[in-house]
Amino acid sequence: MKKLFLLSLALLLTGSLRAQLAYVQALDKATYRTSYTIGVSSSKTTHLIFPYEIRYADLGSNTIAGEAVANAGNVFRIKAVGRSFVESSLTVITADGRVYSFRINYDEDPLVLTYDLTRTPRSDVPKAARVSTGSPARQADNLADLGAKALESRRRIKHVGSQLQGMDVHLKNILYKDDVMFLVLGMDNSSKLDYDIDFIHVFVSQEKKAGESSATQDVPVDPIKIFDISKNTVPHRQEITKVVAINRTTLEKDRRLMVQVAEKEGGRMLTLAVGPEELATARPL
Predict the structure, then answer these.
(1) Domains of the chain and CATH, by start
(2) What region does 136 belong to: left with phi over 0, alpha with psi -120 to 50, or beta?
(3) Structure pTM?
């Protein structure tokens, strides 16, 4: 009788285990992403500098405290609450949709107090499927209204532009609403040929010098929306206005926000270099 009971129990447990395994699937190693390891203490504050503004941050436990710096949205400060703790974690998502993962350990006297993540290759940092701040300016109707207002804004900037073979692209204005920045572009075609726009490409360019040589690192910036998308041709001897909406941003001195306008099946590519000084003059919309 006892043997029969044990056999029944074994069969029951085996069946239960198989039922559980039927609903369990291991993640493929291709989904794995490495994490950075940093040490923090209770007597010193550690700062993390990200390439873009911080949109989301999650601390693994209450043994560590941290927050984005109010006047520098791309800087996160973190500190240990007590004098020791079991390893914890930090996850940060930035405005460009990149996900940064950290393993946080206690270090009574950390040698490094500032980490510059702007120097991390983008290929090393995974991009989230979708990141939305939920700000009012990003709502479809509001964004359309703001884009229309930006299109009608007067030219305020007159020193940033590019000319090539009768085609002139210039920066007319920089406006912002909440976390959205609007680059207002004027396109003037004084040539005898229409200018068909192939694409508008935005990226941040940084020049790095190593001894006597220098190299340029480009970081793409994904536009939120481009207005007016229906106008993709600048007729000869006419002018149109385009507005490129991007995440609101600031730049360091050695960086430039580049806007490239390329001609479809043509050779006239014009590039604007917008510096940190121009971005700092952006006006509310």
Answers:
(1) 30-124 (2.60.40.1550), 136-284 (2.60.40)
(2) alpha
(3) 0.56
